[in-house]
Amino acid sequence: MGSWEGKVVHSCIKMAVSDFYSRYRTRVQLHFRDTGADSLLATAAAIDLLENVEVVAIIVPTITNKELFLAKLSDTANVPLLSFSSISASDIEHPYFFQVAEDETAQFHAIASFFRASKWTNCAILYEDTADARRVQSYLYDILHESRVNVASQIAISPKATDDKMIVRELHKLKSSVIVVHMSPSLASQTLVHAKKLGMMSKGYAWIMTSKAMNSLDLHDSLIHESMEGVIGFRSLPLFYASTKSRGFALRWRKELIRLYEPDTEIKELNVVGVQAYDAVWALADAIERAEMKPQKKKVQVKVLDLGRLWISNSGAALSSEISRSKFIGLGGEFLENEYGRPMK
Q1: What is the CATH number of the domain that holds 313?
Q2: What is the DSSP letter of 61?
Q3: 235, 263, 289 - which closes a domain
Q4: Burial annotation 209-231 (CB, 10 A radius, 16+ → b, else e)
Q5: φ, ψ of residue 211 in degrees (nearest 5)
Q6: pLDDT on residue 345
Q7: pLDDT at position 1, please?
Q8: Can you list the residues of the chain whose pLDDT is less than 50?
């Protein structure tokens, strides 16, 4: 796994399997694919796993609305697809797709409450110019509007913005000193660095950052930490980070990371995605045991791809039903189904 997030997910998945099956004689067989956050490679990997390996479930850390073709594949093959992405549950119509994360729009109500408590009535929204972010940003606008907060400006910045002047130009368009930032970690940190240079992080300004960035930002990075000073951040799984259990798990996780990779691997903070990966695998393993699934003896073979005759799992319906019934206290807190019949945190 090349990326830092890939290493986190890989190590936490391995730990979850080891911890869960410490009391069982059998265990699930893992098949990892590193797609480098490439949508086309992710689709190709999913097809390979379904058709040639005949896996009983697939876990995808992140998935966008454009990539929900993966969910259609899972529906066709009757194979559960679990993801940590915070896609709005109301947009999901795939019976085999499971969102193992809280709908990211839920935090917007907390942000609106914070505005009311602070007696702020005006703000600007700074968001990443992608289809998913634009859709979610509209929810944020509506929720703030319902709380009688005037959104003076909504500024989109391209995720491919490499020109410093481009970011600075967009920052100058902000028409409020209270700014809500809904961006990926890399773009958010880049934007805050420029905002600080412009004097927009000084007294009189208020910056609020959503979990889209906060869940994965490395706050131990000195440059990020310095630019984040004074920023109010909303992050998922606050109970995990406040618990004593988190410290013990983080220590074990660091040892596992060093074991899997090089001893001199740069180790950053354990992020939310790692915790979600651990709980997702635990839920899946538990569901497999409750569904009383039998070990598969099939060997991996390469077939000629035919999407019209995709392999269909005989155990998928039973496994999907058991995943929907998942309810336990996981590493990140209570893990249970929501009103859509989907497990979430």
Answers
A1: 3.40.50.2300
A2: S
A3: 235
A4: bbbbbbbbbeeeeeebeebbeeb
A5: -70, -15
A6: 47
A7: 64
A8: 89-91, 339-343, 345
What would the pLDDT profile of 45-70 be if each residue is shown by its tens digit?
A: 989 999 889 999 999 887 776 667 88
Residue 227's Cα: distance from chain center in Å?
A: 23
pTM for the full model?
Answer: 0.82
Domain extent at residue 164: 106-235
Q: What is the dihedral of CA 256, 265, 240, 335, to 10 degrees?
A: -60
326 and 178 in one domain? no
Report d(CA 64, CA 247) in Å as an integer: 32
Domain count within the chain: 2
pLDDT score, position 26: 79
> Final residue of a domain: which of 235, 270, 304?
235
Put the strands of the sheet holding 333-337 in their side by side order: 328-330, 333-337, 343-344
| 54 and 24 together in one domain | yes
Residues 114 and 229 in one domain: yes
Tokens matching residue 224: 């990020």
